[in-house]
Specification:
The structure is a single chain. By secondary structure, the chain is of the alpha/beta class. It folds into 2 domains: about 1-70 and about 110-230 and about 415-430, Glycogen Phosphorylase B (Rossmann fold, 3-Layer(aba) Sandwich), CATH 3.40.50; about 235-410, 3-Layer(aba) Sandwich (Rossmann fold), CATH 3.40.50.2000. Helices cover about 40% and strands about 15% of the residues. The chain has 15 helices and 13 strands. The strands form 2 sheets. It has a 7-stranded parallel beta sheet with strand order 3-2-1-4-5-6-7, with helices on both faces. Strands 10-9-8-11-12-13 form a 6-stranded parallel beta sheet, with helices on both faces. α13 links the parallel β12 (about 355-360) and β13. α4 packs parallel to α5 (about 150-160), α5 packs across α6 (about 185-200) and α8 (about 265-275) packs across α14. The radius of gyration is 22 Å and the shape is globular.
């Protein structure tokens, strides 16, 4: 069996969605003739932990670890945050951004290149070079961001001439939050130079959406293909007989940042409460994960506090449970320039739940295309008050009439095992003699 070295920052006991991509690749690669060797940080300062992910690690897998130095605790100390505070002012804020937050973001973008884990690059290349000299490796696979992983893979591929597959969950210089770093000209050039070096060195590049594939090809990426996040059927086996909530529940799992604030939806819910008295008693909004303070303000402004449950950070099993019980699943896409290609991993988990989806975002985006293709929900622009309101009222009537119309479309093409099979086929092509 051929061996692939997987370089990833996120690895159990890390929580959140970032860990799932490489973890699922590692879980299924053996089914396609590849033995994964994992390299991950020994003492990473993960935003939060999820011990349930440990059971997903394949048996007898080789896991290599090297210590990492990270600046996050220092930032939290200076900004007055607690060590276990999970909020990141770039994605979801617990309060209005202060000068210290903006200064930290500027430092991160201009001096921590490619990202805040950059101090892990040199020790990792040194550690893995020693390992590769003593142990045969057929290919290298990295997943970014963080693009520290990407740079480590690039350096090793150049040094040992090992074929390398660079996987992108998100783009690098084209990612929506890149502009928030307030980069100097020199820093911006350095980011782009590293990115171009990656494009030239990687034997194969994969990325998480069709639109982003086109975007990075326009700036020089070659031999690019799409590998979606996908869903894992094993995650849902214990929920097969899950009953729906007795309330009319709208659920969202994951980060609900300032650029995904569904304020028009909240306005519509407020007005439906005023129009239909029983709706106020029936409505429940479940939000699991980090929620930006602006979203909470919108909830308050629209008098939805009593209807809303803020679960905070919960483990994966609990998050799936909320999804499976919901009457309606909320899927807002970032209000950003590259929103067409933003496909949250939660989309595929939503699809697997068979519950109807309320999508907010560009109607010509990749997510909208998948939802329309699978007939798994309805898609609206953020400001389409009337149609959003009508759809919620339609779903509410279904709820009151006790009509359950789960999505019945075949979604097997989106399974994570099938996506891993694509990764394996690319590794096969890269390593042909």
């Amino acid at each position: 069996m051929k061996k692939v070295l997987i370089i990833t920052y996120y690895w159990p006991p890390s929580g959140g969605i970032g860990v799932q991509r490489c973890l699922k690749f590692a879980k299924y690669l053996r089914d396609f003739g590849w033995e994964p060797i994992i390299y991950a940080p020994e003492n990473a300062q993960y935003v939060y932990f999820d011990e349930s992910n440990l059971k997903e690690i394949p048996e007898n897998i080789t896991i290599l670890k090297c210590s990492i130095r990270e600046p996050f605790n220092l930032f939290k100390k200076f900004s007055g945050r607690k060590k276990d505070d999970a909020f990141n002012p770039i994605s979801a804020r617990d309060k209005k951004v202060k000068f210290i937050d903006n200064f930290a973001i500027w430092i991160r973008g201009n001096f921590f290149i490619p990202d805040a884990r950059f101090l892990w690059i040199k020790p990792s290349v040194k550690y893995l070079s020693k390992y590769i000299q003593k142990n045969h490796v057929d290919a290298i696979l990295t997943d970014g961001p963080p693009h520290t992983n990407t740079v480590i893979g690039c350096r090793l591929s150049q040094k040992f001439n090992i074929p390398w597959l660079a996987d992108f969950q998100d783009p690098w210089t084209q990612v929506d939050y890149y502009k928030f770093f307030k980069l100097t000209k020199r820093a911006d050039q350095k980011h782009h130079k590293l990115e171009q070096e990656v494009f030239k060195t990687a034997k194969k590049i994969t990325i998480a959406s069709p639109s982003w594939k086109k975007d990075i090809e326009k700036i020089g990426a070659k031999n690019v293909d799409v590998v979606l996040w996908g869903y894992d059927e094993d995650d849902y086996k214990s929920f097969k007989n899950q009953k729906l909530d007795k309330k009319f529940t709208i659920a969202h799992t994951g980060i609900l940042g300032f650029d995904r604030n569904p304020d028009v939806l909240f306005e519509a819910l407020k007005d439906i409460k005023n129009e239909i008295p029983q709706f106020a008693d029936d409505l429940k909004i479940n939000l699991a994960g980090m929620v930006d303070y602006s979203v909470i303000e919108s909830i308050k402004e629209n008098e939805l506090e009593k209807n809303t449950n803020l679960f905070g950070t919960i483990n994966r099993h609990e998050a799936i449970n909320l999804v499976m019980k919901a009457q309606l699943l909320l899927l807002p896409i970032n209000k950003a320039e590259n929103a067409l290609g933003r496909i949250p991993a939660k989309l595929f988990e939503y699809l697997c739940s068979k519950r109807p989806i309320l999508y907010l975002g560009p109607l010509n985006g990749d997510v909208a295309n998948i939802i329309n293709y699978t007939s798994s929900g309805k898609c609206f622009e953020y400001d389409n008050y009337e149609d959003i309101k009508d759809f919620v009222k339609y779903r509410y009537k279904k709820y009151k009439d006790d009509e359950i119309d789960n999505c019945t479309f075949d979604i097997s093409e989106y399974s994570v095992k099938k996506q891993t099979g694509k990764i394996a086929s690319y590794l096969d092509e890269m390593t042909k003699v």
